[in-house]
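Note to self: user wants both folds in one dump. Writing first protein now.
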Amino acid sequence: MAAGVALTGTQKAAVLLITLGSDASAQVLPFLEEEELERVTLEIFNMQAVPQSVRRDVLEESYHLSLTNESVDQGGYEYARMLLTRTLGEQRAKELIARVQNMQKGNPFDFVRDADSVQLAGFLQDEHPQAIALVLSHLRPSQAGSVLSSLSPDHQAEVAERIAIMDSTDPEVVSEVERGLQRKLSSLVTHDYSLSGGVEYVVNVLNQVDRGTEKSILDALDETNPTLAEEIRQKMFVFENIVMLDDRSVQRMLREVDTKDLVLALKGASEQVKDLIFRNMSSRAANLLREDVALSGPVRLRNVEEAQQRIVGVIRRLEAAEEIVISRGGDDELIV
């Protein structure tokens, strides 16, 4: 990166994250939307050396008061991998890095990434479910979720199932789909095997749809592929998703959770989750919980994850009983 070159907003954000170092930057990334995270990560990938003058200008523009000579001055793959792993965990970091690497060499279906979801759903409605699944598996989860919600109920579950069991797509299969869709989907051709779909991806998609669509799809999968339906349900909500709960739901959850599990779970929680928990407790209870977490000492990661999973089980049970609300967007919100 040359000094004096005008930077885009995303490039400035990448420079700032590189300059701050992984510890500070890891506190920033959770506040970014998925699409923003992808764009910033791509810029970090592409920044090998950031001149001191560029870092200084970005810091000044960001209203930081000082520079440090110890700031990291290089980006690249390793820095992006380290930063994302610290922030998102190893599995999600791998998924995001894989998507960003694909973005660097160009993705199939780029031409529909800015298309209106309703119009795209109308265009795909009469295609074979496997072709629809192939298209959706290459889109952002938010866009794929919108398209899936707009498909007819008869298509939704089958398309979701096909996305979930999809793995590496043979170029010949992609070419076959291309011929079936003729000129409109001519961009399907790819010379490389494309990693797409899978259970994790369909979970991301279902997290973007409204509650009614999600329930309809999972109920249908219960009939056709109950094992897959249960696997998806297990991954639909993870401990860090507690931030999707409103305050009333958090308070209801806290009345059901074992305090020992809460102490263990918070040992591996983000500051955002901790703040949400503490602010929904009385000052005395929050202070006692902070002390218990601080005094608990080192604990095994497995024990932390098991405690978090038990809390997730409580949340899923309360949601199934409609005693709490998990905000997923759409129209399935409670009106009080």
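First done. Writing the second protein, which came from a different request thread.
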Amino acid sequence: MLSEDPKRALVLSGGGGRGAYHVGVLRFLEEHEWFPDVVVGTSIGAVNGAAIASGHNAHSLWALWRRLRTKDVQKPNWNPFSAVSLLDTTPLRDTLLNDGWLDFDRINSPEEAAVHLRITATEITTGQLHIFSNSLKNKTDITIEHILSSCSIPLIYPHTNLGETLYWDGAVVANTPLSAAIAAGAEDIIVAVMTPLPGSGRSTPGPPSNLYEAASVTLEWALLASFQADMKMFDLINSLAAIRDEFNRLQADYPDIVNQYMQDMNNFVGANIKQDYKRLAVPLIAAPEDFIPVEQIVSYTEKWHKKLYQMGYDDMKRAWQNAGRVVE
């Protein structure tokens, strides 16, 4: 059953075939009795988030990932001159519908959904980020099309139609949409991102040797840039909350410019900073220390699933320790 007072949010970034990383993060959190009330997912994060909303835990989700292969996700597009993508994701649709990954009846039931789910996708014609939810006031009945829309990596995978609207991967605009977690009311936010944070990487992606790798490297930097923008947004909102608290303490009227900044942020985040927003601790961020090979975005092998699963576990453990939390 959905929590009526969601406090914990897990934000799962995009990254394609690297998605087993999320499962390692989830395993560590479950071992430390940290269970999300809200899951925000982009791209492969939307797949894993929907699986969690369907009732999967780290153990059962890992069982699915261990069996997942490239052929279960994509196949070559044999009409490259008439198509808009290099690969066809028909196999992914079949896998998610038929191999036990998702239970849409449960996802869309307030009584049975395991978590509040937020899925992001980018509207192609406007560049606007859309957030689809199983629990907002303007609730969406989540379908396979919503999952696939969030996974539609430009150039690599085909766009997805939702009615008459065309969508690409949510990571085009926001790879780690913290605003969706904030608007849900979360106060304890954990982010799993599969690109090293600035200053932590000991390597850089090598020069691309083919079209697949060129598109992947482009996505890599887009993912990092959107994450940095999200963190700046988080800091700005906390600064506005501090200004709000000080004016409240002084019982003074807000200057017009402060009111305008707050209104702009209200529109962006979807929450009322004056009334609803609490100053939050900086999110815990699980991120790799080095770049993961770019080809892993479109490659699904047991060898790399195991590496990424362990990497996610270890990176979450390091972030947990660095935040001063006790490791059992």
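Dump finished. Worth passing along: The mean pLDDT is 85.
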